[in-house]
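anyone seen this seq b4? input:
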Amino acid sequence: MNAATAAVAETVRGIDPCDELEREHIATTLDWLASTDDVFRREKPAVPPRHLVAYTVLVDPASRAVFLGRHRLAGLDSDPVPA
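predicted toks r here
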């Protein structure tokens, strides 16, 4: 396992699952990471067919809002949403 894939696997191992479904997803992800180092998309739309994707949630506790970002290809708007 290369260093980048190992770092992702270590992060996934650090997740405390909330329920059985999340526990299954973690196990499936770790199995996948152990089976390949080909985890980064190199060519659109799907090469390799399974690749890493990361999402982030930005929260502003002072204004009790969540920031929704604009995905250029999806064409979604970005506006703060009250919590």
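The CA atoms of residues 13 and 33 lie 11 Å apart. The two ends are 41 Å apart (CA to CA). kinda curious what u guys think
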